[in-house]
Specification:
The complex is a heterotrimer. Helix content of chain A is 72%, strand content 0%. Chain A is an all-alpha fold. Chain C folds into two domains: 33 residues; 212 residues, MetI-like fold. Chain C starts with 7 loop residues before the first helix and ends with a helix. Classes of the chains: A mainly alpha, B alpha+beta, C mainly alpha. The complex binds adenosine-5'-triphosphate (ATP) and magnesium ion.
Amino acid sequence: MTAATDLGTHPASRQGVTSRRFLSRFEPYFYAAPAIVLLVTVMMVPLVVGLTYTVRDIRILNPFSGGYVGFAHFEAVWHDQNFHNALYNTFWWTVSSLFFQFFLGLTLALLLNRTFPGRRIIQSLVFLPWAVPAFLSGLNWAWMFNPVISPLPQWLFALGILSEPTNILSDPDLAMWGPIVANIWFGIPFFAITLLAALQSIPGEIYEAASIDGASRKQQFVSITLPFLAPTIAITLMLRTIWIANFADLIIVMTNGGPADSTQIVSSYIFTQAFRRLDFGYASAIAAVLLVLLMAYAVSIIFIRRSLLRET
Amino acid sequence: MASIQITEATKSYGNTAVLHGIDLNIQDGEFIVLVGPSGCGKSTLLRMIAGLEEVTSGSISINERIINDLPPRDRDIAMVFQSYALYPHMSVEENISYAMTLRKSPKEKIASAVNGVSSILGLNGLLERRPKALSGGQRQRVAMGRAIVRDPQAFLFDEPLSNLDARLREQMRSEIRKLHRKLNATSIYVTHDQIEAMTMADRIVAMHDGYIQQVGTPLEIYDKPANVFVASFIGSPAMNFIKGTASASGDGYHLQTDQGHQIILPESSGLKDRMDVILGVRPEHLMIVEEGPASLPATVDLIEPMGLSTLVHVRVGQDSLKIFTLDRPDIAEGTQVHVSYIKEKLHMFDARTEMRLESPV
Amino acid sequence: MAYYAKSKGQRVVDWSVHYGLLACYLFFALFPLFWLFKVAVTPTKLLYSEGIRMWPSEMTWTNFTQVMTDTDFPQFFINSAIVSGSTAFISTLIAAAAGYSFSRFHYRGKAVIIVLMLITQMFPLVMLIAPIFRILTPLGLTDSLLGLVVVYTAFNVPFATFLMQSFFDGIPKDLEEAAMIDGNTRFGALVKIIFPLTLPGIAATLGFVFTAAWSELLFALMLVSSPDAVTFPVGLLTFVSKFSVDFGQMMAAGFLALIPAAIFFFLIQRYLVQGLTAGAVKG
Ligand SMILES: Nc1ncnc2c1ncn2[C@@H]1O[C@H](COP(=O)(O)OP(=O)(O)OP(=O)(O)O)[C@@H](O)[C@H]1O
Ligand SMILES: [Mg+2]
């Protein structure tokens, strides 16, 4: 006690105070520094470097490449039929995956948001697909659609969904549904977990108050549950859209873009350009276009949300 | 022990100023009670003294030494948090002994200190439990124990008894008093409870909107509130106020109330003719009387029997007044009565500044 | 949800629908995994003849034993374990520090850092492969497990940071303040008081990053070529591209690949829900 008092008159401690003040001012940065350094060096710098590739001719196997080509790549992208096709496929891939993932995930979250015997174990099991590595889900579903080693095509035929028990992955009209189904299987748990977390954060008293006020289950869902979930839904839908649009693993493993490019999405097309044809310059240009499109999407969603919020 | 000096201390969050130029000198061993309405900055001030909140400008010193930049652990201060802030993963015993463990006190010393504290606070059977398994009041007592087990330079209490029942609160009040007498450690105590403020404080600091309104002993504050805010805030039931205009009559003044009555005012150098005045009178200084020269006609609105005493609400014109009496008046609501006052006990405030007009009592 | 008084008949209907729907979900979630296992234990000679039977007439573990003895999978497995384990550990450490800083301090530039992190969640990572390859080559980090760890850590830190931040947000600030008054430094309070309380959150983050790293395919495929640094996903994929695919062995290998991630996930998913909740409750 007196020791602390004595310190005050000691000249050394004055210095201690200054360095302490310095420390406390910079303390937050110390904690965040490793993350920042890592992100800048491993993500931001490569991103910028990648953007410079878009205006250069970079082909790995061609020793004469490396020159400046201006906007030639972008011009080529503009006229590239395969890219247009991939863009179109990306749209369907993203929208249908997201639609089913979201609604099935929401239903699952609602089912799990009650206490019932066996809930813990059921929850663990239905969330399991999320733990399955994406490449493995892809392989697994590729086998599931193979009529020789899986009963699934037979079942789909029996249900009248398929006209013949064939492998949909080799049918250009249907192939896209293969990766989409795998993606739905893989992605339901993500939505279920996020939405379940949001549901569980709604205080129970609110429902009790509402049911005393005479609200039916349906009215409670509309007037309490949905408004409470809305912010979570908005942000997860946005992030997931971007994530799914970028998610090429399943397609690369299951169909590699085929048959006849019918499952080629932009990100798998970038992959093909870069690592099958080793044309990094062109691949980077496509990636930059995709980046711009996704940013535009994100910004417009945020903008729409803002203006909706302002109205209410 | 420690004296604490707060000089011109301010606190802002961004552009919101929360505390404005706080000046306060706390003597070694003094028991200071901070009162004020919710949101006036009491917790913020405590947290600045504890070192949990940066001082925006001005200074805080302990024993004449400025400690603005000293981290909390070097200030040797114990604090009871308004939210308790018990460590959920530690038992009651570990919670209480944690500070001593950090200071590497010998085991036996810790054990005996924990024992002493837990019997004072009635926590003996609960030492092994986790905070989760305690009631609100029990948690509050653990939070209290965590502070008083130490022998710090100063104690900071942020509404430490708010969650206890009346009896336990009374008991804890006297325990804290006893403890203070024994350790004689400088203490700053925040409360909303009038009785705690009046009975425990050496001095009360009344705050409002980030300003200190008045500092004084409990009786000074009660008897000579510095302004309308303090007058209305201290005392339960609260002081009655009547608005009017002073007018000279003979060698004194009387108040011409807005309701058209006349009240004779005590002497005060601050009074001037035609000055707007707010008159304050405590409920215990009003009484129901037969009609007389200095009485006001009133209608009884409500009678609140409180056992020991009775609170009579009356209306004089538009002014509602409360009258405190130890009698059990035999009157019905709605009857016409007359109300008189003790002239020497009237408080006068300048209606413009709301500051007290001194009277020689 | 709240409890509702209801007639018995209504309750029976209600719960039948509830369990019925859950059964559908369970079937959809588990059947593919069951099928993986079924093919893995089917003897090669029965693979096609009993391709669509629910369970082979004869069951065998030889596919598993062959994968463990005749292939490089044990090596891939170890590589993956090293990469995922280190990535999980380092990412969680870095993310915990950053998440703590977001949760507890206000400082200049914080918003910029957060936006930066959000943006990294947005752009096509494939775009980074070439530049990263260029940057890592002179450092000798291509074709090495260390290079993968660095890249995976960077990819996982943003989400892990947000996750950790939500866990820290769930712990009242008063607690570490009390600890600081009791005599801790801020860092001491963090280690002694906050970390024990965030343990579930740390576990969830560890598990999350581990599974993500365990699954990563594209970068592993591109950055690594020498067999002693190949991870499990790449190994499995190269297995597919070889002619005369041995389905049984591949399924067995796949099933083995599933186990660590599944175990991790099983242990953590409860905390994952809890962590996201903790973030939401505290305003
Ligand atoms: N982080 C903050 N940012 C902005 N304003 C704040 C912050 N913390 C507190 N305040 C404001 O400071 C004022 C004082 O708060 P403080 O907690 O000191 O009040 P109090 O007197 O302790 O009230 P109570 O009796 O309700 O506990 C309040 O108006 C509050 O809204
Ligand atoms: Mg307070």
